[in-house]
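[Automated response] Your request has been received and processed.

Submitted sequence:
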Amino acid sequence: MRFIGLLILIFSFTSLHKTHAQIDASKGGFKIKAIDSTAEAPKDAQLKLSPIKGLTSKNVRPTINFTPLSEVFKKKSGISMTKKSNLVQPTWTIKQKFGEDQKDLSKFSKDYNLGELTTKSKIIVIKCRDHEYVDGDRIRLMLNNITIHPNIILKGEFFVIDVDLVEGYNTINFVALNEGTSSPNTAQLKIFDEDGKLLASNKWLIRTGYKASLSIYKE
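Generated structure:
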């Protein structure tokens, strides 16, 4: 038993000595080997940035090195929102005058002569539109008492139609079928030859059942 106890005592003393040695060694600190400072990164190494999806669905790549615009290149505004404007304010009011919607319509209760013209053109191009209130005015187009178009609705843009002329005199009538929602029936008329040359330009204001007439002599 004494022998066994002696062995235990020797073993305990040896372990205590090693532990003390380790603690003493720790007082000196740890040393980590430094990385070689002369090492260089590969030249083909690149920083990859993921594209950012913007509101306009365009791919925008963010930049790392951003250089702000210097003061020299910044555009300076000469307008100040705090100062009073020196712009001259208009002192007039523009009012467009219309022939429609008048109280006295008796002067429009008659046929209207648009004039006479002479041409060598085989055809004419008629353009007509409502140049005042676009209120649903309608007309019938007639050539030498023959109906060419029974119901033309006059709008803001020109209605265009080609008409073949006969030798000698040609009478074109624009018969008012109604007066729209604002009396009387109103229209702007332009006549062109086959080469696009303007031959005549006129306007009419007539009541329902009356006509605006144009005489054309073809040479």
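Summary generated for your ticket: Residues 52-60 have pLDDT under 50 and may be disordered. Residues 107-218 form a domain with the Immunoglobulin-like fold (CATH 2.60.40).
If you did not submit this request, please reply to this message.
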